[in-house]
Specification:
The chain is mostly helical. It folds into two domains: 164 residues, Ribonucleotide Reductase, subunit A (Orthogonal Bundle); 193 residues, Ferritin, CATH 1.20.1260. Helix 1 packs antiparallel against helix 2 and helix 2 packs antiparallel against helix 9. The mean pLDDT is 97. It binds fe (ii) ion (FE2) (2 copies). The site of one fe (ii) ion has 5 residues, from helix 9.
Length: 405
């Protein structure tokens, strides 16, 4: 057997650092782009993949610590950070999906598949287990992107140039593993300004937009059916909460990995809440495209810095929303609507964690970004801001009721 058959433990560590870097870069770019992609299906998939990319990075970081690598971004070189910045500078859905999925994730997929035969598998079982664990989700992600891409590529002509540039940057750094022959650096195409963060969240042009003046909450007891439909339309609109978290995550890269990991899960939970709205309105005979989109709440929150958006969401909006969820569960159980009751019970369960994360990370954000306020003071200021600025009457009502109790 030749001595060159397998990579050394040091080379293995270097390769794992690159996997983790790229998974995290995918998470970050997809988070920043979630509000910028108008296609509903893509938003739903991307929301899941942000969490899966974050979870993959977290697993690899754990393995790196076992291999005594505690600063996984040290010594990564200068090309991968440039590649990550280039991913952010996509100009539309096709460029995001082509670069993230059809270049980076596809290359990661091939690398994970071959990793067991590259490392000393007999001695490096924990790494082999990780690559085996990560493969199914990555395969599903790439398969989705390949299928979805055929539906959208004609909508965004010229996307190949940016894909080729990003693929060229990866090749110039020796591919995903860094161990392939290094190609010459590609020439950077023109006209690729950074569009992030998105100040307005995007929807397909023909989708209806929410009109606050006609949004009335039907009485739960008097009109249970109208109330249910109204409530699940608002659930569908939790897409904007996910989009808000995407921009917050993108705007706070200085924060620790644990924070980013928690936010990526929080983001996916809001996608899931939107999906429970989507499932339920579907059962009640509506399509997502029939439901007016509450884009205004994302747009108005983007006028605030990321720290204030996070404090507003997790220490005001989410805690204020809890009593209504309990009341809805009780009501739906009472009228034997077990589907709605099950949906809200999972929402309520998730929200407990969101509020817990808010308590944990708001003080850290305040400190990291130099705010003089305490968590209680920023919560008070954000609630006053909400009462003044939200287009959603339900949020005002919840804020007012939270103070009555
Ligand atoms: Fe939610
Ligand atoms: Fe939440």
């Amino acid at each position: 057997m030749s001595a060159k058959t397998h990579i050394t433990i040091e080379q293995n560590t270097d390769v794992l650092k690159r996997y983790a870097f790229l998974e995290k870069a995918c998470m970050r770019t997809l988070a920043g782009w979630l509000p910028g992609v108008p296609e509903w299906e893509a938003k739903n998939e991307i929301g899941l993949h942000i969490w899966e990319s974050g979870d993959a990075a977290d697993l690899i970081f754990q393995r790196l610590r076992e291999l005594r690598c505690y600063q996984p971004e040290r010594g990564i070189g200068e090309l991968l950070p440039r590649l990550a910045a280039a991913l952010d500078r996509a100009q539309n859905s096709a460029e995001v999906i082509a670069t993230i999925y059809l270049v980076i994730k596809k290359a990661l997929l091939e690398a994970y598949r071959s990793h067991p035969s590259v490392t000393w598998s007999d001695f490096d079982r924990p790494t082999v287990q990780i690559t085996e664990k990560l493969l199914p989700a990555l395969e599903r992600q790439v398969a989705w992107a390949e299928k979805f891409f055929t539906e959208i590529d004609a909508r965004y002509p010229g996307w190949e140039t940016w894909r080729d540039y990003v693929a060229g940057l990866l090749a110039a750094d020796g591919g995903v593993t860094g161990m392939e022959a290094k190609a010459a650096e590609p020439h950077e195409p023109d006209n690729h300004p950074l569009l992030l963060p998105w100040m307005n969240c995007q929807r397909m042009k023909d989708w209806p937009i929410f009109d606050p003046s006609v949004d009335f909450e039907p009485d739960r007891k008097a009109e249970p059916e109208a109330h249910r439909l109204w409530r699940f339309k608002h659930y569908l609109n939790e897409m904007t909460a996910a989009e808000t978290l995407g921009s917050i995550l993108w705007m706070t890269p200085e924060m620790t990995w644990e924070y980013q990991y928690n936010v990526s899960r929080h983001l996916w939970d809001e996608i899931r809440h939107s999906q429970l709205g989507m499932v339920r309105i579907g059962q009640l005979g509506l399509q997502p495209a029939d439901v007016p989109q509450v884009v205004q709440i994302y747009d108005v929150m983007m006028k605030l810095p990321a720290v204030e958006q996070y404090a507003l969401l997790t220490t005001v909006i989410e805690p204020n929303g809890m009593p209504e969820k309990s009341a809805n569960r009780e009501h739906w159980e009472e009228i034997h609507d077990e589907i709605s009751a099950a949906a809200v019970s999972y929402d309520w369960s998730d929200e407990n964690f969101h509020i817990r994360w808010g308590k944990k990370w708001t003080p850290v954000l305040l400190e990291a970004y130099g705010y003089p306020e305490t968590p209680a003071q920023i919560a008070e200021r954000m609630e006053a801001w909400l009462l003044e600025n939200t287009p959603v009457r339900m949020q005002q009502k919840m804020a007012i009721e939270a103070h009555e109790h």
